[in-house]
Amino acid sequence: KRPAENETAQVSVRFHLAVFILSAGTYVGRREIARMMWKNHESWGADVQRLLYYKFVCGQTNISFVNKAISEENATHGDLLIAKVEEDYQLLTEKVLWIMNWAVENIEFDYLLKTDDDTFINVPEFYNSVPSTNQTKFYRGYTIRDALVRRNTSDKWYVSRTVYKPDYYPPYNRGNGYLLSNDLVSLVGRKGLAMKQQERMTVEDTFVAVLLSEENVKPQHDRHVFAFPFRSACLPQNRQNVHLLGGLGEGELRQVIINFRNNDAVCAHIETQYW
User: Fold this and answer.
1) Which residues of 81-110 are buried (b: 16+ CB within 10 A; e: fewer)?
2) Sheet with 139-144, edge to edge strand ranges
3) Partner of 22 at 20 to 30 A CA spacing, among 170, 185, 204, 207?
4) How confident is the model at residue 5, as a pLDDT?
5) Per-residue pLDDT tens over the stretch 78-129
6) 3-class secondary structure, 41
């Protein structure tokens, strides 16, 4: 049995992979497209169906018609979780910390994937790439190195020196999809909540990396994880290599899902300036 909205998970199975897909109440179109892959259970195989847990995670809002629509949507699909965090991009770190602590408290799992609703995932291939054994200090995704901290106050990813003093971030895995072992999910959730909110940077993927770097945990680069519009993801020879492709628009996400179903090239029928 999978938990309904905000219900404590009463499940006996230990999931090998728990996937939490960040969304927002008004992003109904994105979720409907994403369900083209998440509801495609028949292509997954028995083990994946049994040992994979996933939820779309929205924040809280005071807009009554949005709340009504979310409730109706969850009654239909049963795949929504409402974080006890206000829906605000600047509170993304708070939402991710809520997810991590909720997961630790409510379900049994070996690994957790944090991803977004604009991300394509080849579900069975990604699942099969997760280590079969329960490892510790495991942190894998698309690794970025030597990233400069944004200091312009008008920047979407602005971080003040009061919150983080160094000029460069430690190596980190992009937020469109990073995989953590259970022990690190617990560690990040616990350390994050122990801080005052004003001490936490609002850029969630680098915030996770900073906490992990303090424990000497280094990210692993996953050659199967890409971010649109990286040309390398669209090369024909990478057709079998793309397990995760993030940063897609709604039309692009729909087309990539269709392309994989039809065994076409990853980026077939997508017009863009990048290739």
Assistant:
1) bbbebebeeebbbbbbbbbbbbbbebbebb
2) 80-86, 52-60, 15-22, 109-116, 172-181, 139-144, 220-221
3) 170
4) 45
5) 999 999 999 999 999 999 999 999 999 999 999 999 999 999 999 999 999 9
6) helix
